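tool_call predict_complex ligand=zinc ion
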Amino acid sequence: MASCGGGENPDIVAFMKLALEQAKIAFDSLEVPVGCVIVMDGKVISRGRNRTNETRNATRHAEMEAIDVLLDQWKEKKLSKAEVSKMFSKCYLYVTCEPCIMCAGALSFLGIKEVYYGCANDKFGGCGSILSLHTTSCEEVGGKSYKCTGGIMAEEAVSLFRNFYELGNPNAPKPHRQLVQQP
Amino acid sequence: MNKFKDHESWEIIHIPDKPPFPPHQQPTVKVYAAVIDPKHANTLVRKLNHILPLENLRHVKRVRKQQLDGGSTHLSVILCLAGEDDSQLDVVPKEVVELIDSYQLETFITKVCRYAPLSKEEWVEQCKIWPTSFHPPTYNINGITGFSEEESHSVCTFMKLALDLAKSERQMVNAAVIVDPSTNEVIARACDQVYSCSSPINHEVTKNHDNMLLNSSATEEPNLLYDGVSCLYPWGWSNQKSCDSWHPLWHAAIVAIEDSAARDRNLFPGSRHDLAEIDHVQPALTYPSPKKQKTKSTDVNAYEELGSHTNGCPPESSRPYLCTGYDIYLIWEPCAMCAMALVHQRIKRIFYAFPNPNAGALGSVHRLQGEKSLNHHYAVFNVLLPQESLNRGGVTEKPSNVAHGVSL
Ligand SMILES: [Zn+2]
Ligand SMILES: [Zn+2]
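tool_result ok
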């Protein structure tokens, strides 16, 4: 935990690089390139990438995928709800793009400790861009906030998006498309 | 807001993009007005409209006609906007001052409503201050301007279905029913599975069992009755006892979306849309195919162009693009997670029965339908249930204040 606390910590960059790796896997699978890792006690315990296309479910964002990996693990270990909740309260999320309103809400419901993200999400962002679900919470019904820090390797995240949308554009140069069709 | 009264006590209310003001507390602006001689009315109004048209107050009528006790008619005309500070007579334009002088008008300051009325109720209240005109909104979403008899009947039917689902669990939960309104086909139905101990596939409604449970729980603390509703208490999942099948984020709407996606995967196995513009960031940069262009557009009726379903062997042309064109029925107003999930999945209309003062994202705490930056917008309706449909389940009053623990 202490290893991810400081703003200058090189671990933050290292974990974001792992999140970017997940985003690249999404890119190669013709998915919107967003990836994330979840870290506890300085160790990566879950990874996720966007799978909206493959699942035809537009809510299967990287964060949701990584959360479900953890829940499966913990339920297999027969952890109680209270224990699972305690586990989430020790988790750090590193995601290449600001969580959308849906994911930002979900992270609050789970009671995650802290979120680091790459680029801002000007259209759907739920951690400051459109809504601030990481801070606004209703204490009287158990609302939870979490610390959120953006701008970690944002350029890398944006350039992945840019490449992806150029690829989807029929007017984009051919080499981009062929590049991705290779396994 | 636009209301439609169904047969007896069903009522479908549109929840607009901007927060409504209570009809009797609408914002006003001050104007200079003057009582005028009816024989000068036409000339004066023509001159005033020429000199100083009320550009930002088009809904406000220039002339007010009042019947006095003695039977005589009293006409007043709006001259111009007044400063909010009463002493600023100097804001009156020179041409208006000339009119005041030549017709020897006695001016007074009065108020008019700042915004055009959104509903008949607002309009009635506005006219008590100064007359305005009311034009019902003309959107291309069915229902905002009212529901046909047939459509309101369907709305009631599907809301009842959702209500039965919600009551079918061991404790009161939220329920979701996704419907294709062009065929009235139920696409998916689900309950909260945040605490669920039952199999996720089993949606059987077992009424006797439920009524027994609900009747017994209705006498207990109301927060015990409703703390199983995930969108109302989204942070409360860890306090519940553990069982085999549960998920802190499986709110009814999220489960229903996954069910509809599974249906899509089953009915149309090989093909897949290249959903390059699925939400994450900057989806507006590109529209790779004509079909996507259509669904990208803000025309929420786009699905209707895709043709209707036939059971058994659906043609590829009937392949849904996510939930484009579909409606969802929910018992409680969804939380931010669920409301945004429904944006992502391109739902066309949302109907819910009870507001969610804890975490509701369609007007109560947030108002996603009014967030202009989102790339998709649905229309939102609150369906007020008649008393009897609640009594049937053993709930004796509308649980509108459940979140604050008001006794039932
Ligand atoms: Zn998201
Ligand atoms: Zn919810």
